[in-house]
Please model this.
Amino acid sequence: MSRALSVLLLFLSYAAAAGAQVQPFPAAFRTQEIPTNGTTLHVRIGGKGPAVLLLHGYGETGDMWEPLAKNLMTDHTVIVPDLRGMGLSAQPEAGYDKKTQGVDMAGVLDALKIKRVDLVTHDIGNMVGYAFAAQYPDRITRFVLMDAPLPGIGPWEEIVRSRALWHFGFGGPDAERLVAGRERIYLDRFWNEFSADPKRFSEASRVHYAALYARPGAMHAGFAQFAAFGKDATDNQALLAKGKLKMPVLAIGGQQSFGPVMAVVMRAAADNVQEAVIADSGHWLMEEQPAETVKVIRAFLDKPL
Model:
């Protein structure tokens, strides 16, 4: 192989990786620090039209939604917060149960004078989204959930027995000491083991998110999200006892992650559930298969009610 061809292949490999990295939101988006429910959330807002709220999960921030936000902003008002304690949002000492964070979301919408939204969520964002939808069902038009269970609902007890989910019970002062200064190592475990192909979660994205999770207090807040799962399960069972969700729901699983189980989870919590499985993807759908994931979400949101 000639030196020139080697250089070209190296450049193309770099370009492909760079294309998968975290991208800044379009310039038309603004950021706003919104006080809500005893904390302050960092929120990106852009576009015009019916509102859609995008909620991220652990190992990422609202930055993960850039490909979808860019697509939706043409005819939607897109709202993308960092969850309580995560990303650039404030880190209160308490309130990491998902029922409280559901109230956080209502406060964000109130501050923006928005009554109803389509809701799209991933990972822990699913849990916050369900608590929001169950407490404020009249504020949700459609609900898309991606690749994570709901505490206390459906096959939760079977799911949490998986050895791959040992991190659900990992936390506390000693865990924080172990991870301090090693945030990238800890997060690489999630990005590697829960991907169909770890190379699709680019090095630039790993550097970006590891820096955010290395901020003072960020890992403490992240562990608090998991520590609240017991309360979340109790809260969710009480919310479900009042009735299943009525709005249209799309349950999306990565083929090499939750797959069709995502729909099983949601059929325990909602009456009108459609399912989709994204081929050749693990848990990180927006990094592994962004084009197909955006296409599937967009098709669901565009359907007339």
The chain has one domain: 23-302.
